[in-house]
Specification:
Strand order of the largest sheet: 5-6-7-4-8
Order of helices and strands: HHEEHHEHHEHEHHEHEHEHHHHHHHHHH
Structural class: alpha/beta
Bound molecules: adenosine-5'-diphosphate, magnesium ion
Shape: elongated
Largest sheet: 5 strands, parallel
């Protein structure tokens, strides 16, 4: 009798090993590691193969997600007459007890430096900002879930954490937690491996405000999507607030289940756009103030002009200037700033002031240095005014910034020049042809 069961165990193991070999070829290494590395064949009878898995959660998961591929693997291993039965391994530890200890005092993972007060509001982010404030003011109100999306370094994490920090201050009793989607997944995998899924679920499902960062990370990750789906439902049904960020809108995240996309859109979806020049300058001024760095407007304008698409890079420029200043004690002039930031700003490329000056220079046949200079010769003035006009119309620059870009001309000169060119264009004067030519050059860049 003893002998017989040993034989059966051995046979079961051999069969299962073969099945696993075929499985390995059909699923990702990560999935295999997570779901199959801790399985163990127990025994085999005439009609069933018994496989032990760490716990009940595995059984549900395997049956729901891997039954088809396991069936195929069985077939490839020549096993057609056996039914596969999973059963949980004997418990080593009481999960639920551990769970309670683990969730007693969860950390919020919030960083205090992200607040609404130090978030500079401009046209590009005012919608997202207002929505974030509304949610922070009354969580689980009108906007649930709130979904914020936008490009890299535009302030999504800042706003998300600002919501958390505000909630903690104003609504002291609320349980608030911030988590990047990737961290959520790593915690989940660890929980599965350590057989502490119960406490993992408990940790997330007892929250009042859940802030999930970079949810685009869900793409192609089925089991993560599954868990987020259940967490979402559980919190949402209990009337708890969920806020998410992503680098793109819900329906543009590739390979993500439709049921999640639709849930993400149940509440409010807002975007953050790249900041305009004025906002970039305001952000730089604010950061200078915070860091105690003194830079004149010309330098601020220079940096804001060069770094367009990413606020983190704007900050990077200031950090470098501050470091240079404290190491050398040299005053920061425009030339110095240009020099120390040269390699940082070379990369960001969009239509820039220098492009406009260059295009006007070619179209009007006037050297760029004259356009930026002071001479008042008729042809030069005409080209200069055309450059102002294009800066206004193509880059949407403010009058003040245009003045700076062209050698420090004052606001009234700029406005007068632009109006003059506008009138000439309207009347179809000769200048139209040259301006069209400049635009063509700019379009071809
Ligand atoms: P994202 O998460 O969108 O990639 P972050 O929130 O990490 O961007 O922002 C990058 C950096 O820029 C952070 O240090 C953040 O504090 C700062 N930042 C972004 N937007 C603003 C803003 N409107 N005002 C002030 N600082 C900002
Ligand atoms: Mg971020």
């Amino acid at each position: 009798m003893e002998r017989l069961s040993e034989d059966r165990e051995l046979r079961a193991r051999k069969l299962w090993e073969e099945v696993l070999g075929h499985l390995k070829e059909r699923i990702t290494a990560q999935a295999f590691e997570t779901w199959f590395s801790e399985t163990r064949a127990v025994t085999v009878s005439d009609d069933r193969l018994i496989i032990e898995v760490p716990n009940e959660f595995y059984i549900d998961w395997l049956e729901e997600h891997y039954s088809k591929v396991v069936r195929e693997a069985l077939r490839s291993a020549g096993i057609t007459n056996l039914k596969l039965i999973y059963r949980p391994a004997p418990k080593e530890e009481r999960e639920d007890e551990r769970g309670f200890i683990a969730v007693k005092k969860p950390s919020t993972r919030l960083q205090a430096r992200y607040t609404f007060d130090n978030f500079v509001v401009g046209k590009s982010n005012e919608f997202a900002y207002s929505a974030a404030r509304a949610v922070a003011h009354s969580p689980s109100g009108e906007y649930n879930p709130l979904f914020i999306y936008g490009g890299v370094g535009l302030g999504k994490t800042h706003l998300l954490q600002a919501i958390g920090n505000y909630c903690l201050k104003k609504h002291k009793k609320l349980k608030v937690h911030y988590v990047p989607a990737e961290t959520f997944m790593n915690e989940m995998i660890r929980a599965i491996q350590k057989r502490s899924m119960v406490s993992f679920k408990l940790k997330y499902r007892q929250l009042d405000v859940l802030l999930i960062d970079d949810i685009q990370f869900l793409r192609d990750k089925e089991m993560l999507q599954e868990e987020i789906f259940h967490t979402f439902n559980s919190l949402y049904d209990a009337g708890k607030q969920i806020v998410m960020t992503s680098d793109r809108p819900p329906k543009e995240i590739p390979s993500i289940e439709e049921r999640l996309v639709s849930r993400f859109q149940w509440g409010l979806v807002v975007d953050i756009k790249p900041p305009d020049l004025e906002t970039r300058m305001a952000i730089l001024r604010k950061k200078c103030e915070e860091e105690g760095i003194h830079l004149n407007d010309e330098i601020i304008h220079f940096i804001a002009q060069k770094v367009r698409k990413n606020i983190r890079e704007l900050e990077g420029c200031l950090v470098r200037i501050a470091a240079f200043h404290s190491l050398t004690k040299r005053p920061i002039t425009l030339q110095v700033a240009e020099e120390i930031l040269r390699d940082m700003i070379k990369e960001s490329r969009g239509l820039e002031v220098t492009d406009i000056i260059e295009a006007v220079s070619q179209a009007f046949n006037i050297p760029a240095r004259e356009i930026k200079g002071k001479r008042r010769k008729k042809e030069i003035v005409e080209a200069r005014q055309a450059a102002m006009y294009l800066m206004r119309h193509m880059l949407g620059m403010s009058l003040k910034s245009i003045g700076y870009s062209l050698g420090g001309r004052d606001h009234s000169t700029v406005i007068h020049s632009i109006e003059k060119v506008e009138k000439l264009v309207e009347d179809g004067e000769d200048i139209v042809e040259k301006i069209e030519k400049a635009k063509e050059i700019l379009r071809s860049l």
